[in-house]
């Protein structure tokens, strides 16, 4: 779970988030290290669409959200695809 970025009004989907059970380390890898494991977990997470929406809406810059790395989200925002 992305505890660092959570606000007091925790969103409902975050209580269902698979990463809440695995810990945040996977989701905030060191620069240049693999995000493959985080993406694998996101791939099994039912909250993925809500999570990605949240990250895009809140301009989350760091870590893996909704199965996408920060670079991939930037690309998505720029191109819309
Ligand atoms: S999609 Fe990934 S980052 Fe988002 S809640 Fe699920 S496991 Fe966590």
UniProtKB/TrEMBL annotation:
Keyword RNA-binding (UniProt): no
Gene Ontology terms describing biological process: cell redox homeostasis; negative regulation of DNA-templated transcription
Reported cofactor(s): [4Fe-4S] cluster
Alphabetically ordered keywords of this record: 4Fe-4S, Cytoplasm, Disulfide bond, DNA-binding, Iron, Iron-sulfur, Metal-binding, Transcription, Transcription regulation
GO cellular component terms, A-Z: cytoplasm
Manner of cofactor binding, per the entry note: Binds 1 [4Fe-4S] cluster per subunit. Following nitrosylation of the [4Fe-4S] cluster binds 1 [4Fe-8(NO)] cluster per subunit.
Modification note: The Fe-S cluster can be nitrosylated by nitric oxide (NO). Upon Fe-S cluster removal intramolecular disulfide bonds are formed.
Domain 4Fe-4S Wbl-type: 18-75
Entry superkingdom: Bacteria
Primary localization class, coarse: cytoplasm
Location(s) in or outside the cell: Cytoplasm
Family per record: Belongs to the WhiB family.
Name of the protein in its database record: Transcriptional regulator WhiB
Source organism per UniProt: Streptomyces resistomycificus
